[in-house]
Amino acid sequence: MKIRYLCQCLLTMIVLAITYIGLTALPVQAASPPSAFDFMKPSSFSKVELSPSGRYVAFIRVQTDKYCINKYGAMVKGEKLWCKQKKKSYRSTHQIAIFDLDTSKIIKIFPLPENYLVSWLEWASDERFLAAIYIPNTRGGRSYGAVSGGSRVLSLHINSTDYVALFSNQTIIHRQNKNLTRITNMLRQDPDHVIIPARKGGELDLWKVNILSGDAEKIAEGKRGTFHYFTDKAGKPILRFDCVGRWCFKVKVFAFDNAEEGWKNIKTFEILPDEDEEDYDFWPIAAAPISGQFYVISDEGERRSVKLYDIKTEKFIKTVFDHPQVDVGGVVLDLQTGVYAGAWYYEDRLGYSFENPKLQQYYNGLNKYFGNKENVALLGFNADGSKAVVYVTSPNNPGEYHVYNMKSQQVMRLFGRRDHMDERLASSADILQIPTRDGKTVTAYHIYPTGKKSAKTPLLVMPHGGPERRDYYDYDTTVQYFVTRGYQVLQVNFRGSSGFGRAFAEAGYGEWGGVMQDDVIDAVKYLYNKSLASADNTCIVGYSYGGYVALYAGANTPEMFKCIVSGGGVTDILADLKQTKLVFGKESETYEYWLDSMGDPKLDKEKLKAASPVNMAAKFTAPVLLVHGEKDGIVKISQSVKMRKALKKAGKEVEFFRLEDARHAKWRLEQKILYHETIEKFLDKHLTKP
Question: Is residue 37 helix, strand or coil?
Answer without folding.
Answer: helix
